[in-house]
Design brief:
heterodimer; A: mainly alpha; MetI-like fold; two-stranded antiparallel sheet; 2% strand; B: mainly alpha
Chain lengths: 329, 305
């Protein structure tokens, strides 16, 4: 088990380094850091002096090393667009994105898994077929269109829910939260549904097909023969054995949720990091793009690692296999 | 030619196509959308992006079938500039389709080439290509496309970017979708390259390029075709999403995504038709293409026969 985790760690570091290289090339060669820092009337000598002082004349590997050291400390320089420190811009907006992604994943798990179990247990019932058909349409609708349609019905026509922004937020030591006010919670509903719907259909289809497969196996028949209740069979035996692939996909989808949040954030004018990234693409604000890239890279790597570790918690065979091998040597 | 038709009509694929009504509907819908949008310069009632033909007093007319204010010259209503929604959708669908097809072709050519090289040459070349693929797979395709677009914007001026926007978008989406083709082709090449016919070709002294293109490639077309069809839907959605986010096609050259973005800006005032009709067209197009892709995947899968 330790060897497995170590190997995964090395792989994660390699991926992060690759992302770092891309970010560095963006940062250093696509934009000109000097132009962003000085005014129009700075003389060529002053520019050259600044270039020397910032180490921009050093060999590329040395610069890359400095870039990584700075990135590890969260220093990505100043935004070309607003001249604020990039790290502060991102930190200010991170709570909004994380809370939105958290609510969306709750929505996905609380609706997706039960819907998948239901359609897997009763595949021929008309309601299961309806859910299947709706999920196919859900996959074909782009996220932003779902958001627009929800706004049209629930905000413009019915006036039930707000259509943009975070509503009221409470600031707790730099972390702004939506969870403590009624308006804040209301503002979360439509964006969370929009963000989660695609993943919901994915999880539902996955749980459904896994359930269909498990319900055909012998141990389910034996569980019935032993006279266990349906409840114990469906949830204790069947669902538990579908969890490994579901955890994999759900974990990877959590990363996708945070990345896809940029579309939802644009539709709902949600002040998160995704919206910041879109603005930085429009203005080719390279430092922000590089920082966002590193952040998302780190996030995906951490999520992949956690998913791998969760396997050990869920699947006793892996745990047993690992210790048996360790004991055998 | 007649012989070819007879053989096609007798094939398994055609039979499986005929016996799935949903697929037939999807195919007819796809063909209809393609036909109507590509004939739009001939059959569209208006030329919405010729500023001279616009009249602001025609602005914000509702569709004819919901309100008496509607006007049969503009069956689906007009936007705030007085552009006919129906004609805008026809021209916009054409652009969405062109970008979708073009980016699928870019991704396919790139993916097949890298997959062939990776599988046939092996060694360090294979390792480098596949590691790049792994890292790229870590990120969602739309993020990669956005990043490429952002880089291009950093390198050229805004005005120049608007002129070449369509090529930038095709390149960005194409570059974000190549991995799947490369992996599939590489896998098939690894299987094929040890078979006797490839060894025979090598023995008679054919060049590696010729062996790859003439002998190995025809044997991997099935899976590649399935990926291409399924990716067409994704590519159309990606283009629409990028255009919606304002980093895709400019409003002087609007695709369905751009039309939805323009409509979204006036959505709060309740003029729903400017957004809903392009949105419905996009959804119908993607749904039809996805249904075709699902069918093709099952039809070409020998396990399901």
């Amino acid at each position: 088990m330790l060897a497995f985790i170590l190997r995964r760690l090395v792989q994660s570091v390699a991926v992060l380094l690759a992302v770092g290289v891309v970010s560095f090339f963006l940062f250093r060669y696509v934009g000109d850091p000097i132009n962003a820092m000085v005014g129009q009337d700075t003389s060529q000598q002053e520019r050259d002096a600044l270039r020397e002082k910032l180490g921009l004349n050093d060999p590329a590997p040395v610069q890359f090393f400095h870039f990584l050291v700075n990135a590890a400390q969260g220093k990505f320089g100043l935004s070309y667009r607003t001249s604020e420190p990039v790290s502060r811009m991102i930190l200010e907006r991170l709570p909004a994105t994380l809370e939105l992604s958290f609510c969306a994943s709750l929505f996905v798990l609380f609706f997706g898994v039960p819907m998948g179990v239901y359609t897997g247990l009763y595949p021929r019932h008309w309601s299961s077929r309806l859910l299947q058909a709706v999920s196919l349409i859900g996959v074909s609708l782009p996220t932003f269109l779902i958001g627009i349609l929800l706004i049209l019905f629930f905000s413009v026509m019915l006036h039930w829910l707000p259509s943009f922004g975070r509503g009221e937020t409470v600031d707790i030591g730099g972390w702004t939260t939506n969870f403590l006010t009624r308006k804040g919670l209301e503002a979360l509903i439509l964006p969370s549904i929009t963000l989660g719907l695609f993943q919901l259909t994915l999880i539902m289809r996955l749980v459904r097909s896994e359930m269909l497969e498990v319900m055909r196996t012998d141990y389910i028949k034996f569980a019935r023969a032993r006279g266990l209740t349906n409840r114990a069979i469906n949830f204790g035996h069947a669902l538990k054995n579908t969890l490994v692939p579901v955890i994999t996909v759900a974990g990877l989808q959590l990363g996708a949720l945070i990345a896809f949040a940029l579309v939802t954030e644009t539709v709902f004018a949600w002040p998160g990091v995704g919206q910041l990234f879109i603005q930085s693409v429009q203005f080719s604000d390279i430092p922000v793009m590089a920082a966002y890239l590193m952040l998302i890279g780190l996030l995906f790597v951490v999520i992949n690692l956690v998913v791998d570790l969760l396997y050990f918690a869920v699947d006793p065979r892996l745990r047993g296999g690992g210790t048996a091998r360790a004991g055998g040597h | 030619m007649a012989d070819w038709f007879r053989r096609a009509a007798d094939s398994d694929i055609w039979w499986s196509f005929k016996s799935s009504p949903l697929t037939v509907v999807a195919a007819v819908a796809t063909l209809l959308i393609i036909l109507v949008s590509f004939l739009s310069p001939l059959i569209a009632p208006h030329t919405p992006f010729d500023p001279g033909s616009l009249n602001l007093s025609d602005g914000l007319k509702p569709p004819v079938f919901v309100s008496d204010e509607g006007d049969w010259t503009f069956p689906l209503g007009t936007d705030d500039q007085g552009r006919d929604i129906l004609s805008s959708i026809m021209y916009g669908t054409r652009l969405s389709l062109v970008v979708g097809f073009a980016s699928v072709i870019v991704a396919m050519v790139l993916g097949i080439a890298l997959g062939l090289v990776s599988g046939y040459v092996g060694g360090a070349v294979d390792a480098v290509i596949m590691r790049i693929a792994d890292v790229q797979l870590t990120f969602p395709a739309i993020l990669v496309a956005l990043l490429i677009d952002g880089i291009v914007r950093g390198l050229i001026s805004v005005q120049r970017h608007d002129e070449i926007a369509i090529y930038v978008i095709v390149g960005a989406i194409g570059l974000s979708f190549w991995v799947q083709y490369a992996r599939t082709v590489r896998g098939s090449v690894l299987v094929e390259k040890n078979k006797e016919y490839v060894q025979a070709a090598r023995v008679i002294g054919l060049s590696p390029v010729l062996i790859m293109v003439r002998h190995v490639l025809p044997n991997v077309t099935g899976p590649v075709l399935v990926i291409a069809t399924l990716n067409l839907g994704l590519a159309i959605i990606s283009e629409a999403t990028l255009s919606f986010l304002g980093v895709g096609l400019p409003s002087t050259q609007p695709s369905l995504g751009t039309l939805i973005r323009l409509g979204n800006e006036v959505l709060q005032s309740g003029d729903w038709w400017i957004t809903v009709f392009p949105g419905a067209t996009l959804a119908a197009l993607v749904l039809a293409v996805n249904l075709l892709g699902d069918w093709l995947r099952d039809a070409l899968n020998p396990k399901l026969r």
